[in-house]
Amino acid sequence: MRPPLPPVERGRFPARLHVLLAREAKVGLVIRRGPSKSVCAVLWNRTRDAFRVGQWLRGRIYERRSDLSPDGQHFLYFAMNGRWESETRGAWTAISRVPFLKALDLFAKGDCWHGGGLFLSEHEFWLNDGYGHTELKRSSRLHRNQNGGPQTYFGGECLTVYYNRLQRDGWRMHAQEYQGATLFEKQLPKSWILRKPAYAEVDQPPGRGCYWDAHELRQISTDTTLVFPEWEWADYVDGRLVFAVAGQLRVARLGRKQLCGEKLLYDFNGMKFQALTAPY
């Protein structure tokens, strides 16, 4: 049975956050959603903990079908705005220059089955094609590898990209179900384990989509378990624990039995839609 989420005032949900991390650069990209039909990409300079808004979209970016290139220069994402008669047919996969959304490579999809993909290297990507994309725009910067997809298939929506991305980035996937979820774990210092129960269900709690995560910390040497069902995203980043909760990105240190020195990195709740232009 999944752990309960704290109560939320009806109609008043904080900004929803998901973070993509570059594997070979101290860069992150925060996908900030809210209200439900507004989303923006925010660059996270992990060296200085500085944040810069890239662009907004009136629509939805499916963060679990998206990826950041290893060098942090490009953003591969799947989006939907429901304009089914447009050139992109209402849903599309794009590759942009971080932290912007203007497409360098653009593939119309026309539905929300499959879509998105994964970076295989700085210059190569795999497109989660499924029922097929229509190529609208291609740059010379990146190469599509049609044979480079992950070996494990988890269905035609978010999970094939998301579960394979987690495992690529150091999370261990458990075969057995855990509290109705698929469990991922990452080993941390001081005998701590970060646990990510990943849920896929239609009776999701208020303020969550049908795919959502909770988090736990388990300390092996002291047999201590801390449960954080309210954390939307968490990872061990640059030697510290970073997590998204209530529209904020926060950081803490690992103590012997508890978290220490928790502090705010950035509050995304006050942000409002802006029509911003990419500089390319």
Annotation, overall tally of beta strands: 23
Mean pLDDT: 93
**Whole-angstrom Rg:** 18 Å
What structural class do helix, strand and pairing data support? mainly beta
Number of alpha- plus pi-helical segments: 1
Count structural domains: 1
Q: What helical percentage do the residues reach?
A: under 10%
Q: Strand-residue fraction?
A: over 45%
Q: Would you mind describing this structure in some detail?
A:
With 280 residues, the protein is mainly β. The chain has one domain. Helix content is 4%, strand content 46%. The chain is built from 1 helix and 23 strands. The strands form 5 sheets. Strands 5, 6, 7, 8, 9 and 12 form a 6-stranded antiparallel β-sheet that branches. Strands 14, 15, 16, 17, 18 and 19 form a 6-stranded antiparallel β-sheet that branches. Strands 1-2-3-4 form a 4-stranded antiparallel β-sheet, with no helix packed on it. The relative contact order is 0.15. Residues 5-10 have low confidence and may be disordered.
How are the secondary structure elements laid out?
Blueprint: E1 16-21, E2 27-33, E3 38-45, E4 50-58, E5 60-61, E6 67-68, E7 74-80, E8 91-97, E9 103-108, E10 117-119, E11 124-127, E12 134-137, E13 143-144, H1 159-168, E14 172-178, E15 181-187, E16 192-200, E17 211-213, E18 215-219, E19 224-228, E20 233-237, E21 240-245, E22 248-254, E23 259-267
Parallel strand pairs: 11-13
Antiparallel strand pairs: 1-2, 2-3, 3-4, 5-7, 6-7, 7-8, 8-9, 9-12, 10-11, 14-15, 15-16, 16-17, 16-18, 18-19, 20-21, 21-22, 22-23
